[in-house]
């Protein structure tokens, strides 16, 4: 999900009051542009917002990102006809990975390091176990590089944050599921685009060393690179891969992500150069994200049409196959309504029908602090958990 750290990089200086544009979601979201009593809107931008407990947290002033930052140029693609061949899907393959992003440890992105329980939280193991018992097997654990590495990319890790993160990861993998380590950083560190490729590789070496013996861990190089040089995205991904392998972590899969928020709908335009990534273990999986609202941002509960799921993904399917790659849809979601439900079904049917290249999908998002957020898959009361669990389980 596109979130606050992006705004830090794109800020133009224009202050936006909390809720002035976009709704404040997250814990305590009342469904309107304010948080429920006892919660404060700590962040809001075009895509994402967070209510956190308490009243003391400052309201962040952020700027609305420029429209060019969003892949609006491809919005017109929604008007093209859906490819007929892909709609008669057969659920012919079992997803290797099927589950959720677990959001929480990356919350409070305007407050570093912030306080556990106030600005950020780790996933709820009971909730994860509930989802594992229902057959889901992959949990992408979001965290903030600034909290793990407070001094520099090559500096030592914060032991308390690392301990909690490790406990989450180990809980998941001990339960037999995959845990995806997701630095939810948009190719940025303290708001600045990461340009020190070697330091980024070292950061990954240092982290991968700690998980080198756990083959159920997956390394996700970074969440949603965006608005940065395309060659840099290639270099950062390659440095991460090389750094991970040099740490002796050779059994794990590596999820790479692309520029333009790793959007599937723009992948065949923006991310062609990433076909050149290499891995000595040949375990690269291309992670793409796709939302189905009009601007593809995942901020509206409305989906463009019942066919939009397939329409936005077919180009990526072709790209993967043409290039001999495999992929995972690492974020997707839709609002709780029948148009989105049909669009999501079409999307998942398409992924299954093309299981030679699509290895799985992860819903955005579960996590303990989502409150009434429209996409919340946190059991037992998350809006999407209640609306979509039966549908998603039928695709396991
Ligand atoms: C780690 O989790 C414990 C609760 O299990 C909490 O008391 C502590 O503050 C957390 N620390 C960090 C840095 O997350
Ligand atoms: C690129 O992907 C989009 C979205 O799936 C699709 O509409 C378009 O036809 C693709 N273009 C090519 C050349 O494959």
Automatic annotation (TrEMBL):
It catalyses: Endohydrolysis of (1->4)-beta-D-glucosidic linkages in cellulose, lichenin and cereal beta-D-glucans. Residues 16-52 form the CBM1 domain. One of its GO terms (cellular component) is extracellular region. Keywords: Glycosidase, Hydrolase, Secreted, Signal. Its main location: secreted. Residues 1-16 form the signal peptide. The keyword Oxidoreductase does not apply. Its EC number is 3.2.1.4. Transmembrane segments: none annotated. One of its GO terms (molecular function) is cellulase activity. It is an enzyme of class 3 (hydrolase). Belongs to the glycosyl hydrolase 5 (cellulase A) family. This is cellulase. It comes from Cladorrhinum samala.
């Amino acid at each position: 999900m596109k979130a606050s750290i992006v705004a830090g990089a794109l800020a133009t200086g224009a202050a936006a009051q909390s809720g002035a544009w976009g709704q404040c979601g997250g814990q305590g979201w009342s469904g309107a542009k304010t948080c429920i009593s006892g919660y404060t809107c700590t962040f809001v931008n075009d895509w994402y917002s967070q209510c956190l407990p308490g009243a003391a947290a400052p309201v962040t002033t952020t700027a609305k990102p420029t429209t060019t930052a969003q892949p609006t140029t491809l919005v017109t693609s929604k008007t093209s006809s859906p490819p007929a061949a892909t709609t008669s899907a057969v659920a012919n393959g079992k997803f290797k990975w099927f589950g959720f992003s677990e959001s929480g440890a990356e919350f409070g992105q305007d407050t570093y390091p912030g306080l556990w329980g106030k600005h950020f939280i780790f996933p709820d193991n009971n909730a994860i176990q509930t989802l594992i018992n229902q057959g889901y097997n992959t949990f992408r654990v979001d965290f903030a590089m600034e909290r793990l590495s407070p001094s520099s990319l090559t500096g030592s890790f914060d032991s308390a944050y690392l301990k909690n993160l490790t406990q989450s990861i180990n809980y998941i993998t001990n339960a037999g599921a995959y845990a995806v380590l997701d630095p939810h950083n948009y190719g940025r560190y303290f708001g600045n685009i990461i340009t020190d490729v070697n330091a980024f590789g070292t950061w990954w070496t240092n982290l991968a060393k700690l998980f080198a013996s756990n083959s159920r861990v997956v390394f996700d190089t970074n969440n949603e690179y965006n608005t940065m040089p395309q060659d840099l995205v290639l270099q950062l991904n390659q440095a991460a891969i090389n750094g991970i392998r040099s740490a002796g972590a050779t059994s794990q899969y590596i999820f790479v992500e692309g520029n333009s928020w790793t959007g599937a709908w723009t992948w065949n335009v923006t991310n062609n150069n990433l076909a050149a990534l290499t891995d000595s273990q040949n375990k690269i999986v291309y992670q793409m994200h796709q939302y189905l609202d009009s601007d593809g941002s995942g901020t509206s509960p409305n989906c463009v049409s019942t066919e939009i799921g397939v329409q936005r993904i077919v180009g990526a399917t072709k790209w993967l196959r043409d290039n001999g790659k495999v992929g995972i849809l690492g974020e997707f979601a839709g609002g709780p309504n029948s148009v989105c439900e049909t669009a999501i079904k079409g999307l998942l049917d398409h992924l299954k029908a093309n299981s030679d290249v699509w290895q799985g999908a992860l819903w955005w998002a579960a996590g303990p602090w989502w409150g009434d957020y429209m996409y919340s898959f946190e059991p037992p009361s998350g809006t999407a958990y209640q609306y979509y669990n039966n549908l998603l389980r039928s695709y396991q």
